[in-house]
Design brief:
Number of helices: 9
Radius of gyration: 18 Å
Order of helices and strands: EHEHEEEHEHHEEHEEEHHEH
Structural class: alpha/beta
Distance between the termini: 35 Å
Helix content: 25-40%
Number of strands: 12
Number of domains: 1
Largest sheet: 8 strands, mixed
CATH architecture: 3-Layer(aba) Sandwich
């Protein structure tokens, strides 16, 4: 597999990271050394991406892949972007999002990989690659206003969330929604499944199997008090009644009935997290695309 030297964008020592595209991140220059030393495999490896070149590459890749681009709003001088590409009538519609927590860089980078290499043409796509521009720029979970945007989808207090919700309202229902995240406390990959019809159909297992080719699957019996079974968490009724709605719960309530929050373990190398998320997305889309 082709590789690239990541030192210029990681802000640390160069290393070879195997990814499909040999041009990967060649223009990235970290504005400051976010994280100079990785002394342990279990160190948190977030806060690593130079946001401006990543944003430029995302827009460039989307244009080359035939996506239209819409700026939903601006935050701190950076655009909150949505990419869309339609397919033939009757095709499945898939929504992907990442970057709502700015210290979780694997999600936006996985979307960049997908835009440049792998997105099937027989699917209608809607992609929001960096929902928290100021957080992504700073490498922080919260926005510049100090808000966790992924807890604001019921109160709708933050302008980024309001703009996103307005855009969502313009879209048709999604057949599948995937939200790309990282968990710095996890020892393996896992996902949350919101799917009232999971006894009839579920894309969870194919995505877990795809991610498992790159990193371990979470073996802890619980994550945040939620039972984990083979890397899969089924939210409870109490979870659905929470008042600090995450994006996934808003989308599930208003725009689709099949969605998954994918959590890659931040304790693993960045390229591992990117590959796990990328291949989990492809596996989930393939499973839904085969569904009648």
């Amino acid at each position: 597999m082709r590789s690239f030297t990541a030192g210029r964008f990681l802000g640390g020592q160069g290393r070879e990271l195997p990814l499909r595209n040999p041009q990967r991140f060649s223009l990235y220059v970290a504005p400051k050394p976010f994280y100079l030393q990785y002394t342990s495999l279990m160190s948190y490896l977030g806060k690593t991406v130079a946001f401006e070149p990543l944003l430029d590459d995302l827009q460039r890749a989307a244009r080359r892949a035939g996506f239209s681009t819409r700026t939903l709003c601006e935050a701190g001088g950076y655009p909150l972007l949505a990419f869309s590409r339609t397919s033939s009538p009757g095709s499945k519609s898939v929504y992907l999002s990442a970057g709502i927590h700015g210290d979780e860089p694997a999600g936006p980078l996985a979307l960049l990989e997908l835009l440049e290499t792998d997105l099937p043409s027989d699917v209608t796509w809607h992609i929001c690659p960096a929902l928290n521009p100021t957080g992504c720029k700073a490498g922080e979970r919260f926005s510049a206003a100090g808000a966790d945007l992924n807890r604001d989808y019921l109160s709708l207090k933050q302008p980024e969330v309001r703009a996103h919700v307005e855009w969502l309202g313009d879209q048709d229902l999604f057949d599948l929604a995937l939200f790309l995240h990282e968990d710095w406390e996890a020892n393996g990959f896992y996902l949350y499944e919101l799917n009232p019809s999971r006894t009839e159909f579920s894309a969870a297992r194919p995505m877990i199997q795809a991610a498992g080719r790159h990193c371990p699957i979470e073996k802890a019996p619980h994550v945040d008090q939620n039972p984990v079974h083979g890397g899969i968490i089924i939210p409870t009724e109490q979870d659905l009644r929470r008042t600090d709605w995450p994006e996934a719960l808003y989308v599930f309530t208003h725009h689709n009935r099949l969605n998954y929050t994918l959590e890659s373990p931040s304790s693993y190398a960045l390229h591992t997290r990117v590959e796990a998320l990328r291949d989990a997305v492809l596996a989930g889309v393939a499973a839904v695309n085969l569904r009648p």
